[in-house]
Each structure stands twice: as C-alpha cells, then as structure tokens.
C-alpha cells in the first residue's frame, strides 16, 4: 500500500498569513501520508505569487520527493519557510508538482 494518498479537497479552502488572505481555491488537493495530519495543496495559480520568496532551504521527503521552501510576506513581516513546493516529486506524488503546501504552524489553512 502506498504511503501517499491524494484526493480532491472538498469545498473552498483559504490560506491566511497573519490574518491576510494570500490564496483561496476550490481546486485544492488533500494529501494523506502515513499517520500524519492531512495537508492541503493549493494550485500555484490560486496563491498570490507576490507574497512568495524562494528560500535556500530544500524540502526533502522520502514519500513525496524533493522541492523548495518559500518565505511568505505578510503585513506584519516575513514568515520564514512557511510554504513549499515539490520540484522533483516521487511517482506517487507527481500530481502535486504544480501545487503549494503551507506549514500549518506558521499560517492558517482552513475550509470556508
């Protein structure tokens, strides 16, 4: 059985950085991986690209592949390494290549 399962995320999802909406989508994907909490992935075009700044910190996951982190700008300042994107996904995570996920401890991701 695969350690990665991807489903359409039901409803409309929003991501906020310090209270400011930086993206929303009805086309988000939900990732379930092992016993971890689910992660919502947003299509890149549904996130305000002006708030993202590439980080030097790589993203590495045995189950999902490798990618890059992004700092997220908000009116209150920059949130370090708050988003990530897979640039070289594993075959089972290939569907997530053009998507962004966010660190739920640093920004708010919720269904509205």
Automatic annotation (TrEMBL):
Q: Which domain of life is it from?
A: Bacteria
Protein name as catalogued = Nucleotidyltransferase domain-containing protein
Signal sequence, start to end: none
Q: Tell me the Pfam families matching this sequence.
A: NTP_transf_9 (PF04248)
GO MF annotations, alphabetized: transferase activity
Organism of derivation: Roseinatronobacter bogoriensis subsp. barguzinensis
- Coiled-coil ranges per UniProt: none
Read off the InterPro entries from this record. DUF427, DUF427_sf
Q: Which UniProt keywords apply?
A: Transferase
Domain DUF427 intervals: 14-104
């Amino acid at each position: 059985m695969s350690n990665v399962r991807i489903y359409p995320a039901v409803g409309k999802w929003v991501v906020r950085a310090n209270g400011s909406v930086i993206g929303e989508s009805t086309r988000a994907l939900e990732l379930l991986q092992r016993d971890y909490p689910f992660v919502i992935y947003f299509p890149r075009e549904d996130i305000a690209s002006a708030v993202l700044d590439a980080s030097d910190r790589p993203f590495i996951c045995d189950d999902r592949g490798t990618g890059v982190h992004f700092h997220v700008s908000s009116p209150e300042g920059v949130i370090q390494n708050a988003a990530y994107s897979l640039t070289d996904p594993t075959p089972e995570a290939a569907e997530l290549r053009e998507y962004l996920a966010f660190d739920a401890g640093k920004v708010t991701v919720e269904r509205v």
